[in-house]
Amino acid sequence: MRPLLRAGVAVVLMAMVLPMAAPCAQEAARDRITPANVATLRPVLTLRTGSAQPHLAAPVAADGLLFVLTPFPHHLLALDPASPTAPLRWRHVPEADGRAAGQACCGASGGVTAAGNRLFLATLDGRLTALEPATGSVLWDSRAADPGAGETLGAAPLVVGDRLFLGNAGDDFGVRGWIGAWEAPTGRPLWRRYTTGPDSDVGIGPDFRPHHHADQGRDLGQASWPPSAWRQGGGGVTGPILWDPTLGLLFHGTGHAAPWNPARRPGDNKWTAGLFARDPETGMARWFDSISPHDPHALGSATANALVELSWQGRPRRLLIHPDPNGRVYLLDPASGEMLSAEPFAPVNSTTGVDLANGRPQWNGAKLLDANGILREVCPGRPGAVGGEPDFSRDTGLFYIPASLLCMDIEFRDAAYIRGTGYTGANIRLGTAPGAPRGALVAWDVAAARAAWRVEEPFPLGGGALATAGGLVFYGTRDGALKAVDARSGQLLWRFDLGTGAVSRPVGFLGRDGRPYLAILAGDGRGAGREIDPRDASADSGLAHALRGLPPPREAGGVLYVFGLP
Amino acid sequence: MKRASRLLPLLLAGCSGWQSALDPRGPSAQDLHGLFWLFTITCTVIWLAVMLVLLAALLRRPPATKGAAEAAGRRSARVVGGAVAATVLVVAGLTFASYLATRAISSDQPEALVIRLRGYQWWWEVTYPHEQPDQTLLTANEIHIPTGRPVRIELAAADVIHSFWVPNLTGKQDMIPGRSNSLVFTAEKPGTYRAQCAEFCGLQHAHMALHVVAEPPEAFERWRTAQLAEAPAPEDAEEEEGRRVLESKACAACHTVRGTEAAGNLGPDLTHVASRRFIAAGMLPTTRGSLAAWVADPQSIKPGNNMPMVSLTADELQAVSAYLTRLR
Amino acid sequence: MKPWHAALLSLLLLAGCKRETRQARLDPAVAEAMDSVATLPIGINGRPPPVLLAMGEPYRSNAYQLSQGKRLYAWFNCQGCHTDGGGGSAPALMDGWWRYGPDAVSIFLSIRDGRPNGMPAFRERLTTEQIWQLTGYLQSLGATSSTAATPGRNDSMQTRPGENRVPSMSRLPSPHEGGP
């Protein structure tokens, strides 16, 4: 009897631990690549994806296999870098709704998640699919978003236990944002909560306890908008959703209010540009922090968050770190949403500070405009100072943020809402003072609430950072370099020329042969295939002007690089 | 004589009516009205005097003797000196009167009801701002104001310079793109007045009218609440079809009807279009027929305006006009 | 100068009093004819409606039509995806490269019927005349040689060389370099 019981307990424990198996392997990989051997990293596998679009979705590693999602129209590839002769295991090409090809902007890219011996794919054109990782066979398939309305799926879903959580993208098309839950084994939809509208749509009920006074009230998702404007309000959940097993809460940011022109939407525009804590069972909100009420520069707050445990002002504490597109790192109490700190990590002139007591930013009046017209040199510029997904290192206590240090000239003009077309209302030109760096890797000392050091880059960073337990930080740059810097000092230890800019996050994992690998999917969409004309300074939402001086990439499309140690 | 007496009413027709500066209905207009008559009478008297002196100069015989000529010369020098002094006094007096009148008009009133007017070619966008954003009212081409309460109109323009002028209530004020001007006035008694764009703004400048409805405060609040509501629901199959046509054709790309899928803001808000007395900025009285005529071919009614002729079948046109008439 | 010289010269001055006759809108029959373009089965290239040639191809060569096209470009959210012609989530319109063909019929069909890779159809949102006005404007944006007719200048932020200079300037200098 006892052996059976022991086996049963072991099975239960394994079932609980299995969803976290993938990151464990990453942890093991991470401490095998160290400052001592990083210079010996060499490519073991390269693969051209054949897509000219920006490659934003990072590859996902599970069980020694690497799953790569190319930009829309997607191909999902399963690769085994340990196998020298036939690395491609299978390829899945989902049916693509061509309408979404025009909506692949602004960070939305779809994504894939590996969890519980399943693969979950969210495509840009709104398909949610579950696949078998070994063979690529489809287990279930469902429609989650409607590209005809300009709605897409922005990021990889979050899987916790037998639930799958995902939000939509489409703020730039006037689509109402939402976060939804599905049953992971079957694909049955469970709940959907919106970012704007009456309390019943948003998920505000008796358990909702916002920390700040301004967030308390009835139907604020309607009352803080002009009549009916909340129906095209934006606030999509485009970034990654964070799960806290201790508190049993989901954390996610909401995107910017639609349209970009704030003159058309007087009011606080709840619940856009803020942070929600939700109950995963029902989706009901527990608390909300409004980061940018009224969102006057349409930056939103849908960036990645992190939970850390460290000593804050003398005592050990669990903290929620939220690096916001407005250029500040917010430290919050995950249980109540209390704001503890909001210091800038990039040059900021749109706000002079944040009143931590009521959570509201202190706006710089010279950089606000609630009418049509031009604002010059607003820092940070759209889409914000956070260039890519940051990463935290427990050993150094530093939070590594790939930053974009650009400022913008923004011209507000009338915007018409036409379903399925861009609902913006602003022209943007991004740039900085001549000679000033346009990007940086900022190492943020969380406990001290200031930057420990930063590595300046000539171009804004667009991809995420990977901090390894071995003491390294890997990140890709837009001028085509994959860099490894020392996690404590920021000293450059290794650099590789990718041939094209990198706008996704590097991934570390252990292969089937037990050896550590590092993978990066490079491809910044500046090749001739994408047809951007830099003579227009507002091309690519102003980014083309910020990247002037950057020569066209050597590679026309995207390239996957997998590196290994000898 | 008979002909002259028949012409007299024509002359006096400009003295009253709903777009007449000679029929003041508010304190600002009364100040301007008084100023108008002061100037008119003063200048008429001066003109008559000048004409008399001219006549005298033309009919005068030249002086006979040298002594008479010198006396005449001294006399005319005194007359000229007197005229110069009188001119200076009159000009100073009129300037001071003008200053007093315009100072009264330009004074701001802190408890004024604020209305924002934005001029487009060739219609008026009206916003009633409110501290609660969901009580902000957006409409077009007609404003209602409570009597007895000062109203501040904040003026802006979307494309070219326009000018707001409601003669019965106050003077003109330009609406200049990139600049905000404002105008404060009060309506003392209920009434409907016609305002007109007073700065040449293009082909249809003459057909850019706005109606100002002054009503008692309770009636004004009732109107405001009714306007904030979403569009009334269609009541029969034809109106239902009309709503479907409005949402699926080009109408929805430019117009908003709150409560439907139409959320464009390039043209006037149509949520309560049938509650307005006129359509197309004062072109036609609001009836089902004129709505149908406008939708069928706006360019033949107001050539050059920005609403294109959308091709609809006869049934679709009937349905849309039925639905628009429902939007009270 | 003798008096009759002056009289003759005044008569000559009056010759300049001809005003461009402009129709407020196309006749419905003409609009319907403008909508029926003959195209190849792939939806690219074709024969423009004969009535367009009979009108003298005004959408490409008349400054008023180009200005209307420019107004419609801003009003109907073209800038949301195509920005001011430089592209973004949609291809650039000013680089002279046309994915679905450079001629007027192809551009007209792209706007009216949409294209498979994300261009929405504007058939139900714009009238035929408006789509032709946009077509003419886009052709002038992506032109490789300049013409005499141009739309009105921008009163707003100047992010690219003006339409009358598009083919000849390589890049507009940024404000830091002394540009607008």
UniProtKB/TrEMBL annotation, chain A:
Keywords: Oxidoreductase, Signal. PANTHER family: OUTER MEMBRANE PROTEIN ASSEMBLY FACTOR BAMB, QUINOPROTEIN ALCOHOL DEHYDROGENASE (CYTOCHROME C). GO terms for molecular function: oxidoreductase activity. Belongs to the bacterial PQQ dehydrogenase family. This is PQQ-dependent dehydrogenase, methanol/ethanol family. The lineage of its organism: Bacteria, Pseudomonadati, Pseudomonadota, Alphaproteobacteria, Acetobacterales. Residues 31-340, 460-517 form the Pyrrolo-quinoline quinone repeat domain. Coiled coil: none annotated. It comes from Muricoccus roseus. Residues 210-231 are annotated as: Disordered. InterPro entries: PQQ_b-propeller_rpt, PQQ_rpt_dom, Quinoprotein_ADH-like_sf. Residues 1-21 form the signal peptide. Its cofactor is pyrroloquinoline quinone. It holds the Pfam family PQQ.
From TrEMBL, chain B:
Residues 110-226 form the Cytochrome oxidase subunit II copper A binding domain. It is found in: Membrane. GO terms for molecular function: copper ion binding; cytochrome-c oxidase activity; heme binding; oxidoreductase activity. Its EC number is 7.1.1.9. It is an enzyme of class 7 (translocase). One of its GO terms (biological process) is ATP synthesis coupled electron transport. It catalyses: 4 Fe(II)-[cytochrome c] + O2 + 8 H(+)(in) = 4 Fe(III)-[cytochrome c] + 2 H2O + 4 H(+)(out). Gene3D superfamilies: 1.10.287.90, Cupredoxins - blue copper proteins. It is a multi-pass membrane protein. One of its GO terms (cellular component) is membrane. Residues 237-328 form the Cytochrome c domain. The keyword Translocase applies. Its main location: membrane. The chain crosses the membrane at residues 35-59, 79-101. SUPFAM superfamilies: Cupredoxins (SSF49503), Cytochrome c (SSF46626). Keywords: Copper, Electron transport, Heme, Iron, Membrane, Metal-binding, Respiratory chain, Signal, Translocase, Transmembrane, Transmembrane helix, Transport. The keyword Transmembrane applies. Residues 1-21 form the signal peptide. It comes from the Bacteria. Belongs to the cytochrome c oxidase subunit 2 family. Subunits I and II form the functional core of the enzyme complex. Electrons originating in cytochrome c are transferred via heme a and Cu(A) to the binuclear center formed by heme a3 and Cu(B). PANTHER family: CYTOCHROME C OXIDASE SUBUNIT 2, CYTOCHROME C OXIDASE, SUBUNIT II. This is cytochrome-c oxidase. It comes from Muricoccus roseus.
Automatic annotation (TrEMBL), chain C:
Transmembrane segments: none annotated. Keywords: Heme, Iron, Metal-binding. It holds the Pfam family Cytochrome_CBB3. The keyword Iron applies. Coiled coil: none annotated. One of its GO terms (molecular function) is heme binding. Residues 64-142 form the Cytochrome c domain. Residues 143-180 are annotated as: Disordered. PROSITE patterns: CYTC, PROKAR_LIPOPROTEIN. Residues 143-161 have a biased composition (Polar residues). This is Cytochrome c oxidase cbb3-type subunit 3. It comes from Muricoccus roseus.
